[in-house]
Amino acid sequence: MALSAKFASDMISRTAFGSSYEEGRNIFQLQRELEELVMQSQRSIYIPGWRFLATKMNKRMKEIDKEVQASLKGIINKRERAIKQGEGKNNDLLGILMESNLKEIEEHGNNKNMAQFCWFGSTMVMLTRHPSWQQRARVEVLQVFGQNKPDFDGLNRLKAFFESTILAREFVKIASPQSMSQVTMILYEVLRLYPPGSFLTRNVHEETKLGKLSLPAGLETVLPIILVHHDHELWGDDAHEFKPERFSEGVSKATKGQVSFFPFGWGPRICVGQNFAMMEAKLTLSMIL
What we know:
Keywords: Heme, Iron, Membrane, Metal-binding, Monooxygenase, Oxidoreductase, Transmembrane, Transmembrane helix. This protein is mainly alpha-helical. The chain has 2 domains: 2-110, no CATH class; 113-288, CATH 1.10.630.10. It is built from 12 helices and 4 strands. The chain has helices at residues 2-17, 25-43, 56-84, 93-99, 112-129, 131-145, 152-157, 165-170, 182-193, 225-229, 232-235, 274-288, and strands at residues 200-203, 208-210, 213-215, 220-223. The strands form 2 sheets. The protein has a two-stranded antiparallel sheet. Strands 2-3 form a two-stranded antiparallel sheet.
């Protein structure tokens, strides 16, 4: 898991700032510390308004937020000076945004993208425990890329639907005709069993009727992602088992519920890094296989 986290950190840092993990390691160390503090606070008894008190933990969380923002602003200011001197590069996200005269570049001090990719470690564990699926994924990757390095076009072919006569002959034992990519099915199933986040929180802005429940305005609700993903009524009696084939016809037919699969959240505030995380996972898995 530590290696997966470092890989994710390095990839995010290079994509966003063109910098190596070592250059931004202080930011990621602070983010890990913040994540641990958040987990500690979640394990304690919830007391309304407690987060506003000047406790040792709350003070440290605010300090970390300030340090992360200061570090990020330092990277941005350094790039801005380089651009003015004609030495700036525009081959990363930061350079592209700054060259486009975007005045406000804001990076929130959180660890979402890294956490979302850490579930890739669970993918490797599941493929180790289920070698038949590991072989299926390997055959598909070799069919798409051959002996070449994975590229963008190939990764797009692994994105949603993929038909292969080789796969059809090789894995005729699969219960239903396969159209969903083997790699995608595997990643979806891992995201179902081991989602990046265990729950979502949402605030009720106006009184809402939810079935027989009446939710007053101002209420904070918690959506237990992991419980929904493991619900037998939604996913069947094999909800706790690793069965990627359940996604063979897409997400909508894999479950009995309309919104039963939301590893990256749902609605207008769905994770903006979900496509990036999936691309990371497919790229890394393809290279390993």
